[in-house]
Amino acid sequence: xxxxxxxxxxxxxxxxxxxxxxxxxxxxxxxxxxxxxxxxxxxxxxxxxxxxxxxxxxxxxxxxxxxxxxxxxxxxxxxxxxxxxxxxxxxxxxxxxxxxxxxxxxxxxxxxxxxxxxxxxxxxxxxxxxxxxxxxxxxxxxxxxxxxxxxxxxxxxxxxxxxxxxxxxxxxxxxxxxxxxxxxxxxxxxxxxxxxxxxxxxxxxxxxxxxxxxxxxxxxxxxxxxxxxxxxxxxxxxxxxxxxxxxxxxxxxxxxxxxxxxxxxxxxxxxxxxxxxxxxxxxxxxxxxxxxxxxxxxxxxxxxxxxxxxxxxxxxxxxxxxxxxxxxxxxxxxxxxxxxxxxxxxxxxxxxxxxxxxxxxxxxxxxxxxxxxxxxxxxxxxxxxxxxxxxxxxxxxxxxxxxxxxxxxxxxxxxxxxxxxxxxxxxxxxxxxxxxxxxxxxxxxxxxxxxxxxxxxxxxxxxxxxxxxxxxxxxxxxxxxxxxxxxxxxxxxxxxxxxxxxxxxxxxx
Amino acid sequence: xxxxxxxxxxxxxxxxxxxxxxxxxxxxxxxxxxxxxxxxxxxxxxxxxxxxxxxxxxxxxxxxxxxxxxxxxxxxxxxxxxxxxxxxxxxxxxxxxxxxxxxxxxxxxxxxxxxxxxxxxxxxxxxxxxxxxxxxxxxxxxxxxxxxxxxxxxxxxxxxxxxxxxxxxxxxxxxxxxxxxxxxxxxxxxxxxxxxxxxxxxxxxxxxxxxxxxxxxxxxxxxxxxxxxxxxxxxxxxxxxxxxxxxxxxxxxxxxxxxxxxxxxxxxxxxxxxxxxxxxxxxxxxxxxxxxxxxxxxxxxxxxxxxxxxxxxx
Lengths: 509, 314
Description:
The complex is a heterodimer. By secondary structure, chain A is an alpha/beta fold.
């Protein structure tokens, strides 16, 4: 049935190339008034590029954007805003030194005009907060806000400018399940008031929950369009990947001895990041321990402890049954900790080093890669080539700089580097973030295989689905505290969300 | 005891205001640049260029106020070059800043030699004279201490108020502060980060040049090589000392000027006979470093300071 509601936004033939990569290839679609359109696709499918063109951050190589029948001049965010297009970016565009009101006011008045009209603005913001269920203190410094609150400010920014089209780029990536529900309630209210929404996501259940219509992007092209009511998660997943999707279904774990044990361990906080607060945890052989939580709640501190970057300031810390006296990255390596760090660019690799150099970053000081202080590049290269072959790293060769690799291939090299040492304990911190489905299932399968080989795996992820699918036991972190372990299948996402919001701990403690 | 006598003399306070004036202009200029996200190390050279341009314009026949305008425009021209190189081209702000300092300084010296090839001592101009404010200037003690300055000193204080008002009470100031914290916040609201940053660097550089011009057009009446003598670098420290806030930076400038005025006078006391005068010269700098350490611990540095912004980069 054709949609008879008026078209508010129309894209035609949008094409954008970055060098040899065609990020968007002749994409076109229309958005109707009062509609929630989901833009679904894997990382790298071209969703964010498309929205940045629409909003004027990028200029398209070809194609047109029309808002309410008027062509939008390319490359001007100001024109998009004036036409009533508001965008909530994946990375918030807020100035932390300013208040909520000030952030909303930036650019809303002629620059040379005196006065900010704060009182008037505050009243309008209060009214919008109330109407759309976006609770946030208008005089709070943005620096002090939680991620969920920042997102509400971003939405308020768009509403304050009378946006008729709201674009949300991966809005739920940083939210707890409860915050996500609140966001969806806000979106419903917005649609009821005649706004139109483009909801960008790669999370299928959210797309199913919130949208009226889905457009699937694959490799920069529209791969399909379907009314949400006429489809389901599996069919969407197939459209997204272009093949049938297999969810990891690990066999039952056979947990063994505790290889690393924390008993009431605390670590000092670092800047705004909380340290561990009296955390007790056992990482057992042959078991994947999943760590859920909203990012920035102490997962980093635990990862740093396991990988040797920080030492405990209190509590008992045992590795392989022996109490640890001196703990450092080198000690962790010698104790058989394999590390897949959270940020593969910043800490996992050195961008301008070759694959060979990156492959031996942790072992370069040991034979066969070096003897008596001299590097043995032949051995290092052989090692790198073995990883490239065994772990299917697609690259120009072992002597190419690692910065040329895609995220997935870089991650495979890091995975290979960690697993080739046959680690007893594996720290996998966000191991599949930003990977496409092919690389993702590969990495997950390797982790499961390592578990079956008797390693203790600590999996840290913000993706609750991933935690639920892979973990044999799940802990939740909130503000540096750790929940008890919940065995596989004993907690629903909503129940874990309560812990993620920091609510279960009071009863437990 | 000598210190108490000095602090109670009206001439000491008059000197503090006089010494502080060029620092206030240039500190406000640097503060504007840094609040928008650009460290302007061209300050030292721009002050030299401003000192020369203002003085030369008056020597060549312009009035004092038009001469000041020439200084301002000279500063803005160097600011435009700095802004062009650091903002759209995104070059290292340290390298560009030091380059501008060298360029502006040597341009001023070169222009001086070109226009006055023969002289051994620089010619004098008729500088700004103290303004007599009816009532205030006649007050006992305070009249001499606070109200015996030239118009430029009062202008310096007015500049602080103007900068504070613009930063905190206008849409322009809001956009400028946001540009120094998170430029993408400015871009996402439809404004041009490039325009705001270049504008801020030009305006700030203009103020720096006025600070330099104060030296030749109010404090002294001619132009000497080395007369700026590191004041620009002091202003960079004063911005940090002031935690990027105009009011606090003003306090810092007055404090530094106070130490400076004090040490000059201490040299004349019996104490000065025993201690080498270089020790006194050192005092303001040593105390400034101490104050900097104590004051700037918890300062909120503009988060995007020294970070070039490229549209579309993630």
